[in-house]
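If it is no trouble, can you show me the amino acids of a protein and the C-alpha cells describing how it folds?
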Amino acid sequence: MPTFCKDIGADSRSTMPRCPAAAPVRGSFTPQRSGRPARRQSVRVQALTTGTGGKKVSKVVLAYSGGLDTSVILKWLQETYDCEVVTFTADLGQGEELAPAREKAKAAGVKDIFIDDLREEFVRDYVFPMFRANSLYEGVYLLGTSIARPLIAKRQIEIAKQVGADAVSHGATGKGNDQVRFELGYYGLQPDIKVISPWREWDLNSRSKLISYAEERGIAVPQSKRGEPPFSMDANLLHISYEGNALEDPWVEADESMFTRSVSPMAAPDEPTYLDIHFEQGNPVGISGQRLAPHTLLTALNTLAGQNGIGRIDIVESRFVGMKSRGVYETPGGTVLLTARRAIESICLDRGESHLKDDLMPRYAELVYNGFWFTPERLALQAAIDATQKYCTGTVRLKLYKGNTIIVGRRSQFSLYDEKIASFEDDGGLYDQKDAAGFIKLQALRLRTLGVARTQLGRLRNPDL
C-alpha cells in the first residue's frame, strides 16, 4: 500500500537522519582550504597593508564555526591585527552541535560570543522569497549555499554595530564565490566597513602548514583533520553541498557513502509516499492538513523527500569569479517544494504572468548566485515576482517515489482552470470553435506575407524558377 504523509510533528534540530559513514558537516561559513603561516611579522605587515588599507583595526566580528579553519583564523586575527575578536556563529539548520563553538571561543580569549538561531528568518525571509521566483541557477542549482550568505552578512553587520566593531571577517577562500557574496553583503549594508579576508592575505596554503600553525599556538587539532579531507561540505536547512578534492574530476562518480540527507533512489521504498502541500500567496504553509512554521515545514519536507531518494544533483557550474566548478548537492525538501510551486502557479497564474516570471527567473537566480541580494535590481525583481503571488493559494498533491516528485493533483479557489471550457464535451457555447479560424489567419498573416514576398524576390533573381 502507498505511504501517506501524516503527523509531521514539531520542530527538530536535525534536518535529516545522517549517514554514519559521512564526514562531519562544516558550518556554512567554514573555509574550505587549508594552510600554514609564514613568519608572523611579514604576514602581519602584509595584512595591515592589503586587508584594511593600512588602517588600524580595533575590533572585528568573525563568522566562526568553531572548526579548525576558523579557530586558526581567530588566532591569526588576534596576532596579525592585534585586535579584539568577536565571534558570530549562525544556526541555519546545518544539523551540527553549536555549543562547542562557544567553549572554543572562550578558550581563545573571546569576550563577546554570539550564537544565533536564524533558522526561521533564513527560511521565511530568504529561502521562501527566492522560491517565489522558482529560482534555478543555470537551470539546475537551487542556490542552497548562495542564499545563506546574505543573512550571515546581515547579522555580522548588525553585531558589528552593536559592539562597536570597525571590521568584519569571513573564512571564504580567494577562489570561490562566497568571498564575493559575503563582501557584497557587507558593503551593501555598511559601505565603510573594513573587511578582512585571511585566505587572500596569508600564505597558509597547505593542510600541514595550517596544522603546524594550530599546534604551535595550542589550538586542538582533531585526528580527522590531520589528513586531507576527501571533499569540503557546507550545510544549512535548505541543502548540503560537497566540493573539491575527490570530486574535482567531473568524470568520477560521487561515492554513495558521501550522502547524508537522502537514500539512494534504488534503496528508496517500493511504495510511494503521498502528501499535500498547502500554499498561501505563493508560500507553503502546511503539509497534509497540518499548518507548520516555515523552518519546520522545510525540515519535514527534507525528511519525507530524503526517505524517497529525492534531491540529489551532480553539476558543473560557472562560478562568478570565472572558473568552472563541479559540485554535488542534496536539496530534498527544496526539490519537492519547487515542483509543487510550479503546480500551484499553473492553475493560479495568468499566462502572461507565468511567462514573464519565467523570463525574469534566470536574471533573479544569477543575482542571488553572484551575491547581489541587497541591491535595487533584486528588490525590484522581487516586487514584480511577489505581485504575481497574490492569488497563488491552494493545495498541491504529490507522489514521492524513488527519486521522483510527481504531481497528481492541484486545486485552488482562485484557479483559472475552467473544466467546462477545456472539456472535449459540449461546453454550452462558452467557446465557439469557429472563432479559431480568424485567430489563426491573423497569426499567419505575417508568415503568408513573408512567403509571398520572398518567393517573388527569388523569381526576380532567377527567372528560370
